[in-house]
Amino acid sequence: xxxxxxxxxxxxxxxxxxxxxxxxxxxxxxxxxxxxxxxxxxxxxxxxxxxxxxxxxxxxxxxxxxxxxxxxxxxxxxxxxxxxxxxxxxxxxxxxxxxxxxxxxxxxxxxxxxxxxxxxxxxxxxxxxxxxxxxxxxxxxxxxxxxxxxxxxxxxxxxxxxxxxxxxxxxxxxxxxxxxxxxxxxxxxxxxxxxxxxxxxxxxxxxxxxxxxxxxxxxxxxxxxxxxxxxxxxxxxxxxxxxxx
Length: 245
Ligand SMILES: [Zn+2]
Ligand SMILES: [Zn+2]
Hints:
Helix content is 22%, strand content 29%. The protein has seven helices and 14 strands. It has helices at 18-25, 42-45, 48-56, 75-86, 152-157, 182-192, 211-215, and strands at residues 2-5, 8-12, 34-36, 67-71, 97-101, 108-112, 116-122, 130-136, 141-144, 163-167, 197-200, 223-225, 230-235, 237-243. It has a seven-stranded mixed sheet with strand order 6-7-8-9-10-11-12. Strand 10 (163-167), helix 6 and strand 11 (197-200) form a beta-alpha-beta unit. The longest helix is centred in the N-terminal third of the chain and has 12 residues, at 75-86. The protein is globular and about 50 Å long. Bound molecules: zinc ion (2 copies). One zinc ion (ZN) is lined by residues 39, 41, 125, 147. Residues 39, 41, 125, 147 line the site of one zinc ion.
């Protein structure tokens, strides 16, 4: 997921293929100001190594401003683990990269100098797992669940949000531990008073299932199923939601 607000271009998680999709959208890795990681599973972090390598080679001067990479408890250890495999190939100078480890259990509310606020709250998936809420000075807000099971902190992070992007890995009939379903995502959205729900992180079992119908069992607001390059403009409230590309 990409959040653009003011001068900030924030990537939230980076599974395989993220750099290609960024280019299709019209951005390069050098435009990014922040990366927020929900947890360390490969489907959320696998593009980090190629992104760091492509920042350093062939032209180490191509990044002209610092990239902040934030994540929950263990982020530094996770990066050290990648370094154990890739060494200097993924190490950037201090003026190009900063690691910001968030204490997952404490959660945190950060105000970034680029003019946006982030709230991070622990969710029920991995010990480091965080859900994030981003808001700008006008109050426009978006929340992203990351991977999680049904939990109260998820409703907190999505409270009154303009756009709630929630994982729904499996259909209602095939619920697995550590993940949500459409009707559970709907329950969370309703409890939070979220103004719009988008279902994402869909496993193959979701193919051919009417996920929107399942979410509508528990949530009366607008619901969509996410797809790559789907984009929304938030201005206090959503002006429009449209698929591009
Ligand atoms: Zn996961
Ligand atoms: Zn995942």
